[in-house]
Amino acid sequence: MEEVFTRGNLDWTHYLAALVLAMVRLSGVIVAAPFFSSQAIPKQIKAVFVIATAALLAPTVAGLPTAHAELGILSVMGELAVGLVFGFSLTLLNEILLFTGQVMGVQFSFSLANLLDPNSQVETPLMSQMFSLFGIWVLIAAGLDDTMLAALMRSYVNAPLGAIFLDAKSGLALVEMMGGVFFAALQLAAPVLAATMLVEVVVALVGKMSPQLPVMAITVPAKTITGYVLLLGSLALWPRFIEAHFMRLMDAAEAILRQGMAHG
Hints:
This protein is an all-alpha fold. It is 74% helix and 2% strand. The chain has helices at 12-32, 43-62, 73-107, 126-141, 144-158, 168-209, 215-234, 238-263; strands spanning 114-116, 123-125. The chain starts with 11 loop residues before the first helix and ends with a helix.
């Protein structure tokens, strides 16, 4: 890998073309990828980061044997598609956490407690916001943001500059990845769902045997307390789950790019 990124210099024409194409791909990643797409990061910092990174990568990625550092509509659209596919694939992890928060919020009776998400500008449940922030914290603490940038650099080998073409099969692969969001979210919420459902069954049976028991006044506190106990007990396993799914999504994005290169 290091040998690939130690090529010689290019003339200014190829360098400027490679610079623009690299900026387009990086911009697509910054727009969609988790953490980097956060509205908390000023746009000026994002722009400087994209320009500086593209300026450093341009001479190297344009010198790869299969690269085509030529400006054109197809090359620009292809680079933008690569960046968006890469970023969108990784942002599915955030969607997993948001959906998990929505499911648990209903079980905790917090479904009406919504906050404005600064990233999507859409009101989301309180639990979803908490899990989303927890996921970002895990990404930063585990150094996965550096891993994502390293994978982005590898993408110039799997999908050389200006030589990528994404067809309908790539879109179908993204749809299949989106389908996995629901399954992964249910995996995270399964312990709490099972515990709260068991509480509802127990309270219902007790209420059936004792009609004078205030079932509605007992159910909500019992579900909330039980759910929180299970949630606190399972949070220790969440970082490993988040890291594993992040790596899987990153591998899936690279597989889509290799498939697009094969059809290019």
